[in-house]
Amino acid sequence: MSRFGVRASVAAVLVAASVCLSACETSGHQLDSTACTRPATSKTKLSSDLTAGPAERPAWSGTVGSVEASGGDRLFSRSGGCLNEVSATTGAPGWTWKAGALVMGAVASSDVVIAATGHDHGQAPAAVVPVTEQVVGLDAHTGDRLWSMKVGNDGQRVPAMIAGGTAIVAKADGTVVGLDASRGDRKWETIPPSGCAESQELSDIHPSAQLLADAPAPLVLYPCGSAPRVVLLDPATGKVRWTWQVPAGRSVEYQSAAAGTTAVFGLVVSDGASAYSLFALSGATGRPMWHADGLTDDVGVFAGAGDLCGVSSSRVACYDETSGKPTWTRTPPAVPDRDTLGPIGAVAENGRLHLVEPTAAAAKIPPASTSYRAKPGAFRLLTLDLASGRVIAAQALPAFYRGPDGVVTSVDVPPAVVAVAAGHSVVSPEFHETSTVEAFAN
After folding, report:
1. Does residue 345 have a pLDDT over 90?
2. How far is CA 276 from the centre of its chain?
3. Does position 378 have pLDDT exceeding 60, yes or no?
4. Are strands 176-180 and 186-190 parallel, antiparallel or unpaired?
5. What is the pLDDT at residue 48?
6. Number of H helices, E strands in the chain
7. Calpha distance 418→416 (Å, rounded)
8. Which residues is 301 bridged to in the sheet?
9. N or C: which end of the chain has fewer CB within 10 A?
């Protein structure tokens, strides 16, 4: 399953997210503290800030924390200094792991969860930078601690991924380590290329070794000063399979997701100004196969059913992963204040793309409004066939409103799909900035 939402590393530099992380003490927003909040959900009672008719009613809703990962039929969410297990089908809480530090994020397989812990550096309204100090392997079924590793002050929220039975961890000095995911035994260690280790001052928010999101194997971006390069590592041995030197004057937008199959990898590449392209790299050699121009900055990349797709707030554009020939596109309907349309949160799994799309009823929050109410059905949860763009299912979403906890949905802060598990899509209002979610059966 691949997911695109709030940017996974320097995402927290975004002021809107920073304000919420630093200032939202008593609302449904995430807390910047080590205090724990247990999930509170219900299949019959709606959240107090949720307005829904029979057509928009979710399977369950409530406050679970920020949903970070899924494995099997379980969701894993963070709230302050805790990582929580939640049933994807019922919302029932399971185990809670107390970290003793701020939980930055998590990745998961069906058996292992890797939690990242650390702190936020800085103070809103200035930039707030995520600083991860340690990753901890947990038993996904019990929450028991299996192993841990110090990573230094790394600028990624979760400098780890799981490929097969191997946990791949990127350290602040640019070293990438492969561990047995269940036991934590070290299997291999790969140092960064010569000249590619960056300064680790907290003012430098660019990690020395960035694990590109949602790749099926460890695809690593090394900044290397002004000559960035992308390296594919063998997850079993840590050996370099290939290296792609990013063209001069361009940079990989590692804030955006990267996704791929074992045959093709997709990356968003910028010219340093305002032009963005989707590059398809051969999984065998790392050579560029094709590229598509004209993307926006906030682009998620998804692969499946032989297509490579770029998903942004303005459209979904899919291409044949081998030839780059356009296969299908989808543009949201005309909505008021289209130029303020916020980023799209989406999840791809099993050849399907799950995302939220505005309707003509969606509107921008009126200036200085404290009582704005979105209308039920202003946004729709869609399930699309990745091969053709065909709508498999459409679900009208409830309305959240600006009440005591500040939650509101509108064009500029749209809902987002944060996880798909066990036949349920989990949606968060206001993109990914709240701990309130609702789940719908697919």
Report:
1. no
2. 20
3. yes
4. antiparallel
5. 58
6. 1, 37
7. 6
8. 310
9. N
d(CA 132, CA 156): 7
Listed residue (1, 11, 93, 20) closest to 430, CA to CA? 20
- Report the C-alpha gap between 360 and 379 in whole angstroms: 9
B/e letters for 117-137, b = 16+ CB within 10 Å, e = fewer, are: bbebbbebeebbbbbbbbbbb
- Count structural domains, the chain: 1
Q: Kindly tell me if the per-residue pLDDT of 50 is higher than 80.
A: no
16, containing H or E segment? helix 15-23
Lowest mean pLDDT among 33-42, 208-217, 262-271, 276-285: 33-42
Query: In CATH, what number is assigned to the domain containing residue 11?
Result: 2.130.10.10
Which residue type occupies 222?
A: Y
* CA 360 vs CA 51, 331, 337, 382: distances in Å: 18, 13, 10, 15
Q: What is the DSSP letter of 231?
A: E
CA proximity to 382, closest of 408, 411, 436, 346: 346
Nearest to 308 by CA among 245, 355, 266, 353: 266
Structure tokens, 192: 């960064």
Residue 295: Cβ-neighbour burial (10 angstroms; 0-12, 13-18, 19+): buried
Radius of gyration of the chain (CA): 20
Q: Which residue range forms the structural domain that includes residue 78?
A: 2-441
Buried b (16+ CB within 10 A) or exposed e, 247-256: eeebbbbbbb
Residue type, 251: S
